[in-house]
Amino acid sequence: MKATGTASAAERDRILSDNLQLHRMTARVYDTVHPHMRNSFEQRLQTKDIRRMVHAFAAEAPRRVLDLGCGTGNLTVQFLEEGATVDGVDMSAEMLDVLRSKLERVPAWRGRYRVHQRDIEGFLASNAGEFEIVSMSSVAHHLADYLETLEALAQRITPGGFLYLVHEPAHRTEMTRSSFALRRVWSIIPRGLDRLLRHTRMDSTLHREWEAQDTTFADFHYHRDGISMSAISQRLMPHGFGLAEASRYNAHETSLVSWLDNHWCSRFRYEQFQRTYFRAIWRRV
Ligand SMILES: C[S@@+](CC[C@H](N)C(=O)[O-])C[C@H]1O[C@@H](n2cnc3c(N)ncnc32)[C@H](O)[C@@H]1O
Where are the alpha helices (DSSP H) in the chain? Predict the structure, then answer.
């Protein structure tokens, strides 16, 4: 396992530059090729979580959200829809161009968002703001030292506030190990179905192009064993955080297969590294 807190300066630079390159190449097609952007199963999970967090505060109370690695706006847009104010931070100019074009289309959101083109560490060093909610969707696995970054973030979350992580690869040691043969057999069915159905969602040339590009260090999960929810909990506990809610799910290309595997036939769900993701909400007392 690549332990956090051990990345050298050279490794950090490489992770940042590979990330920039990857998202520069893929920003234009990001929303089309990434299932979590359009898959109704994952979108509903996120929407439910976002509503729960935003509406935990009185309507007149500030609901300032810091969406780190906001990209093309998956969470940013949903937080704005729920009435929060959002600071979106991302180092990729190309991803932020896509986000800005979405934000500018909705006059009602004007004045409720700010977009910062910065790397997360640089942003935290230069901005002393406090937030009721800090979120990251599919970002922790891109960071050199996610535990260190999350600990630094924890200090910026107001009492009663939330830290939200979603679409992070579950750690190898934190998945259900199943010896139940039927589950192994079942795991073949969603994968096959997904492949068949993918073509109804995405042009196959686009998918091949995407797969060819998506092989850099940046997206090959620097943390080869996944992201540890329990390590995060331990690191946050001294700052007054407790895990309020969490679950794992298998990520799939199509909504139908996601519902089938994670909801309708969840008893047979087979957890596998880099297929099984988690969502988690920590709350500060
Ligand atoms: C997989 S995308 C996720 C985007 C969005 N949150 C979502 O749910 O679709 C990862 C995003 O994190 C950004 N990113 C990765 N490492 C970063 C860092 N150290 N500082 C700022 N942004 C970073 C990338 O530019 C990219 O937009």
Answer: 9-26, 30-33, 40-54, 74-81, 93-104, 120-126, 146-154, 181-201, 204-213, 229-236, 255-259
